[in-house]
Amino acid sequence: MDVTSFLRSYAAVRRFWNNSCKPGLSQSLTLQSLLHRAALTQFGRDHMFSSIANVAEFQNRVPLRNYEDYWIDYWQKDFPRLENQTWPGLNPFFAETSGTTTDITKYIPCSWDMLRSNRRAAVDLLVYHLARRPESRVMGGKLFMLGGTSALTELDSGIYSGDISGIAMRRVPWWVRSRCFPPTNLADLGDWDEKVPLIAEASRFEDIRLLGGTPSWLLLFIQALTDCQEDDCHLTSHYPNLELLVHGGVSFSPYRRRFETLLEGSHAELCEIYAASEGFFAVADRGDGEGLRLILDHGIFYEFVPVEELHSRNPTRHWVETIETDVDYAVVVSTCAGVWGYIIGDTVRFIDRDVPRLLVTGRISYTLSAFGEHLIAAEIDKAIVYAANSINAHVSDYSVGSIYPSASEARGGHLYIVEFSDSLVDNDRLGVFAESVDESLREMNRDYSVHRAGDFGLQMPSFQAVPPGTFAAWMKKRDKLGGQNKVPRVINEPSLFDDLQRFAQRTQ
């Protein structure tokens, strides 16, 4: 049964509400609701939630914290049975994540309220799709989310941990469950190499209307589906009714041309989302590349700290009433899973204030500045895309790290390890690619340009091209293949970058 018509009725009401509710009022009400719910928790009593009347008082009472602060102060002692610590009741789930640039497993609390929040945000994704495509029949077929394993680990009686996508799949509403793909027996598989071919084959017999996942893993899946690595491979012949390709988790810029080629001949649209283990934050409500609309009324209160102030003694804490456009902010959230003033590690930039729309610009750790060059992930991504276009190539993945001065070379520099979608990028083309990246970064970033001037600053960046599949093999070696895991773009941890370099050298 196609329930798109029922969804369309809800979507009309939801869009009216979103367009009529003032962002500041919506977020103020959200914060007050969160404070009321958590007033009797240990955290709520410690910070006197019951007497907080407005945003300013909340910011004065509740300092910024990261995961380690919460783990030490509130979670570690009673883990995994967290009851009335930072959110009322017994916490039933933990989303496991190691972040992007470390291998330390983190356990992010995920309450029943957070699961409902995530579901509401996912429905908003379809609400905005129906606004763009009134003729849509997206619920007439299968919704295919390529996530991690849905198998969960029981940490204690009734308490489970696992991939956030797996937790979500285990708690899908009844009216969506029959429309979800893959089935449980395939979704539970943890071995990516085993899982992808089986899912690809099974999907050939399904009417896939929505396909979503992290771009790099989607490309690996599509390669298995089409049995082809060339540019003339399209999804049309396999999923003729595909309407929506949902992507998120990493910057889409390096992948855009590749996906546009894969979707040629189809009527599918690209749609970006901003979701993390801590919550589902924003979704594209306009065309591809026009920013993501912040979801304001589903149990998450947002703050935004200018990146350059994040580690200062008294950083400025903005919210939707005080944000400015074209400023790089670190994202801070307080949620219905019981984190408060929590620094999630992402950076964003707003392009609209009246209806808060943002671009995800990277991670706090994704700043390349070992020598004072202050490059951010968004600038590096843009330079990589510019350089790839200059040699008519597609970049599948890349990472960059710093090379420090040595006895034989007094200047430091950057090494880019780049995987192209084909293996035909010879040394001459790679040289053009390198010069294009350097030129683009000089134009975008004054600090980088100053450090590259003359012979006393940074060396010309070095580039190493690796064969297709190298990054997937490296991630597999680290047990980080597939699902919510992401290839780190900027690696500031020397041991991790050394490991990648050694692995890359073995592929030559």
Task: Characterise this structure.
With 508 residues, the chain is an alpha/beta fold. It has 2 domains: 1-363, ANL, N-terminal domain (Rossmann fold, 3-Layer(aba) Sandwich), CATH 3.40.50; 367-506, ANL, C-terminal domain (GMP Synthetase, Chain A, domain 3), CATH 3.30.300.30. Helix content is 35%, strand content 22%. The protein has helices spanning 4-20, 23-37, 42-46, 55-61, 67-75, 112-132, 164-170, 174-177, 184-187, 192-203, 215-226, 256-262, 377-390, 427-444, 446-452, 470-477, 494-506; strands at 93-97, 106-110, 142-145, 153-156, 159-162, 180-181, 208-213, 244-247, 269-276, 279-283, 292-294, 300-306, 328-335, 342-352, 357-363, 367-368, 375-376, 395-403, 413-420, 462-466, 490-491. The strands form 4 sheets. It has an 11-stranded mixed beta sheet with strand order 6-3-7-8-9-10-11-15-14-13-12, sandwiched between helices. Strands 2-1-5-4 form a 4-stranded mixed beta sheet. A 4-stranded mixed beta sheet has the order 20-19-18-21, with helices on both faces. Residues 228-232 have low confidence and may be disordered.
Model regions low in confidence, pLDDT < 50 over at least 5 residues: 228-232
- How much is the radius of gyration in Å? 23 Å
Class inferred from helices and paired strands: alpha/beta
Label the overall shape.
globular
Count of the separate structural domains: 2
Number of helices: 17
CATH fold name of the largest domain: Rossmann fold
- The first-level CATH class of the largest domain is given as Alpha Beta
Largest sheet: 11 strands, mixed
Distance between the termini: 52 Å
CATH superfamily of the largest domain: ANL, N-terminal domain
Strand order, main sheet: write it out.
6-3-7-8-9-10-11-15-14-13-12
Write the CATH architecture name of the largest domain: 3-Layer(aba) Sandwich
Task: Please report which band the strand proportion falls in: under 5%, 5-15%, 15-25%, 25-35%, 35-45% or over 45%.
Answer: 15-25%
How many runs of DSSP E, i.e. beta strands?
A: 21
Average pLDDT confidence is 89
How much helix, percentage-wise, in residues? Answer: 25-40%
